[in-house]
Batch of 2 targets.
Target 1
Amino acid sequence: MPTKTKSRAKGTGVAQTKSQILNPKSSQSPNPKSKIQTPKSTTPKSQILNPKSYSSPERLQKIFAELDALFPKPECALLHENPFQLLVATILSAQCTDERVNKVTPGLFRKFPAPRDYVGLPQAELEHEIHSTGFFRNKAKNIIGAATRIVNEYGGQVPRTMDELLTLPGVARKTANVVLGTAFGIAAGAVVDTHVFRITHRLKLSEGKTPEKVEEHLMRLVPQARWVSFSHQLILFGRKICDARRPLCAECPLATLCDAPDKTI
């Protein structure tokens, strides 16, 4: 008899615990392991990721209009007198500001203005000239290699196609797009530097993890006639307004179109 009585009491205790779990009003501390089924969302994933139609034609037109008003005639900031000098300056601009490059290239181009001047040039001599731009050893190697290939393979003229430019040492799509767009007026793609990469993410125009992916997205969203100017506009916008650390959101004409998490207003 004592054993049966104890068993019934234990059974009653278990029943009470289940009742408390199933009825939230009867318990202030529900079992955290209890499985509560919630209805699955029927909202398409695309709408969750893009609730404000960031790439809608209306929004894009507003962005274009504001950038046109700010920078009606955007130009490349790198000083140069011909396509080859632009190529060299763009190679030097990797991991370096245009301002610093523009302090180096006038003297460099006075000494070595043309591709043939770099053929056979001791790498250490070029390294000395470009030292302040950073990564000078690799840059010097690439510039000499690119100039030598231009002389030997292209008759001393900078090639005018993406495929040919990509065969030059030190030239990736960003550099090739700068040269094609600025020197030759050829819209082969969109320039994606650190400014363009940052701003396209802040404006939710791309979630690409690489410059190549961002360029791919911009080429789908932006009319080809705007590829060259739009890239220059974003670069200028990044320098003057949409700073990496302290964006001037209070002065930004795109503020109403932006909901970046690091927005300052």
Note: Residues 188 and 194 are 19 Å apart (CA to CA).
Target 2
Amino acid sequence: MLRLPSRQALKDLRNPLRNPLHNPLRGPLQARHLHDEPVPFSGPPSYATLARRFSSLNPNPISFFARKEAKEAIGRGEFVDIHDIGGVDPKDYDVSITDVVNDTLHSEISKLAGIPCLKEATKEEADKVVEDTSGFVYGRKYRMILPCVLGIEEKARWVHFIVDSGAPLTYISTHVSVHPYRKNA
């Protein structure tokens, strides 16, 4: 024999906020975020899709997935550090950059960037968390140059990084790591 639900049960199914058993506002207050930020654009494989996915109007997919993985790791109780890339030994990577030397950084590249190399940075610039920034390509070997603020021991300076996308770690020269941070400097 088929039994039909009562009218009150049907009303509760249509409007769950009326049902005290299913009302999330009557129980302990719990915040639940389904979508913290928009998902990067996805579409059919094409150059137009790539252009739209990496445009400034959409969230950066690299940052999006890195943040997502970090949140999941934190949820599992794991330690998350942006510099933690695993067991890479710095001695396993060696590169010689002969076309960009210290004098080039202080003259031509500083002129192109509009910021003198190793110039003191303001407290505001030193405290800023940069997610996206601009750089430029320099020279016949197409070196990517990225001016950024580097802080060591409460002192911050503008440093022109030479970006090597194949390097497993970020390295700084002895001119950058020692000279501007000496006690008498």
Note: Strands lie at 136-138, 143-152, 155-163.
